[in-house]
Design goal:
Elements lengths: L4 H5 L10 E2 L10 H13 L9 H21 L7 E4 L2 H13 L7 E5 L8 H10 L2 E5 L10 H9 L4 E5 L11 H10 L3 E5 L11 H4 L3 E5 L9 E5 L1 H6 L23 H18 L15 H29 L4 E4 L13 E6 L4 H10 L2 E2 L1 E3 L4 H6 L8 E5 L6 H18 L1
Parallel strand pairs: 1-11, 3-4, 3-5, 5-6, 6-7
Antiparallel strand pairs: 2-8, 7-8, 9-10, 10-13, 12-13
Helix pairs in contact: 2-10, 3-10, 4-5, 6-7, 10-11, 11-14
């Protein structure tokens, strides 16, 4: 049984419009489950933390349920390993500041040129503050894959922290996260993974990855503007947060500074409940119980695996559609035999027209896409595209359809003909 796009799209109120949302790497549309969770929270139990009265107790119960759901989504060992925050960027800056106390002048931090700047700048600033060195790992400009030989050499330098992405928000490349983590852990480094771009596209298992930290944002996986971070409990307990004095000293709460976005956290719970609903549609499909998972964790595994399978066709169709247009150049993996190495995020340029103007022309036809560098500044600089407006990015998720890809193809051909 495969995904039924017609049924899926009914779960997203904004998709009843005729517009085509290919801007998903910048933020997906919200699932009905998430929207309803937020509304219910605000109407029924909108209160601050740890009060003696009913709405506060009910509010805390929702937040605890969301923490447990997020632990299930990432297959974390405990809900206490989940920290909520505004977004991946804010969480990373906060965690980088806490980790900085472990660093000494001359220590090294490894980052990659394939990453979003939110997993680069926090570490550059940390290095600057602490007198540390930064080791950059490059990527292959031909296919957008991380240079593993350079990563290996970087690990030989015994960095204290190794930061990399699960998937590139610019080129769609999926990094071999498990292998990278093992190499970094063997070198004695703390491993910090940005999983924002991968989270809507496939299953994440922090236990299998064996990473120290992994962070994502729910507005990239059909929820509200809120973020979540997984951290190994021993590290969370050990690290000193920067917080006000009366706040909790226990993990994970000690890293959640100030009053949290409670309705946003409720929305995260709703987004995971959407995945749970989706996974429930595949009970007769492949049995994943040999993995040792059960209950919601098993259901979520089914959901994310079904999404991953469906999106292979979207990736293939997007690449073929763009390559059929004269004057286009895709940056990243285009080989249809290597679709497992990418998510359906495809960036390209078209000869004779700037990415911004191309985005504007597509918007006129109801096709929403991104242009520029999408905060993956190191990528566009490495490709020598930053001063030329970056790239045009088309990003599909499982609510997109092959018919929508067809609309994109036709629009690009019309624009190419009119521009020449």
């Amino acid at each position: 049984m495969s995904l039924n796009p017609a049924v899926i799209r009914l779960q997203f109120p904004s998709l009843q419009r005729k517009d085509v949302f290919f801007d998903n790497p910048g933020g997906t549309q919200i699932a009905r489950h998430s929207l309803e969770r937020m509304q219910r929270y605000l109407l029924e139990c909108n209160a601050n933390h740890e009060g003696a009265f009913r709405t506060s107790r009910e509010s805390d119960a929702v937040l605890n349920e969301a923490r447990a759901a997020m632990a299930d989504f990432l297959n974390a060992a405990s809900p206490d390993e989940i920290v909520f925050g505004n977004n991946m960027t804010t969480l990373t800056f906060n965690m980088a500041r806490a980790l900085a106390a472990r660093l000494r002048p001359g220590d090294e931090i490894a980052v990659t040129r394939l990453d979003h700047d939110a997993n680069i700048s926090p570490w550059l600033l940390t290095a600057e503050d602490r007198g540390c060195k930064v080791t950059w790992v490059d990527f292959d400009v031909e296919d957008g894959t991380l240079k593993m030989d350079e990563f290996s050499r970087a690990m030989e330098r015994r960095p204290k922290i190794a930061a990399f992405g699960y998937a590139s928000n610019a080129l769609g490349t999926i990094n071999p996260a498990r292998r990278l983590t093992q190499m970094a852990r063997d070198a004695g480094a703390i491993v910090y993974i940005d999983a924002v771009q991968f989270a809507p596209h496939g299953p994440i298992d922090v236990g299998e990855l064996d990473c120290d930290f992994l962070v994502c944002s729910s507005y990239k996986f059909f929820g509200p503007h809120a973020g979540a971070l997984y951290g190994r409990l021993d590290l969370l307990n050990e690290l000193k947060p920067y917080k006000v004095r009366p706040a909790s000293n226990a993990a994970p709460h000690k890293f959640e500074t100030g009053t949290q976005n409670h309705e946003g956290i409720a929305g995260i719970l709703g987004a995971i409940e959407y995945f749970e609903w989706l996974g429930g549609q595949f009970e007769d499909a492949k049995d994943w119980r040999e993995s040792g998972l059960s209950g919601r964790r098993l259901t979520l595994k089914r959901a994310m695996t079904a999404i991953r399978s469906y999106e292979f066709e979207l990736s293939r169709a997007l690449i073929e559609a763009i390559e059929s247009v004269p004057g286009t150049r895709i940056y990243g993996i285009t080989d249809s035999r290597r679709l497992e190495e990418r998510v359906p995020t495809v960036s390209f340029t078209m000869e004779g027209i700037s990415p911004r103007r191309l985005a504007e022309r597509l918007a006129e036809e109801g096709l929403y896409v991104w242009d520029g560098n999408y905060y993956a500044l190191a990528v566009t600089q490495r490709l020598d595209l930053e001063d030329r407006g970056g790239m045009l990015r088309v990003g599909a998720v499982h609510y997109n359809t092959l018919e929508e890809v067809g609309r994109l193809r036709e629009a690009l051909h019309r624009i190419a003909r009119s521009w020449t």
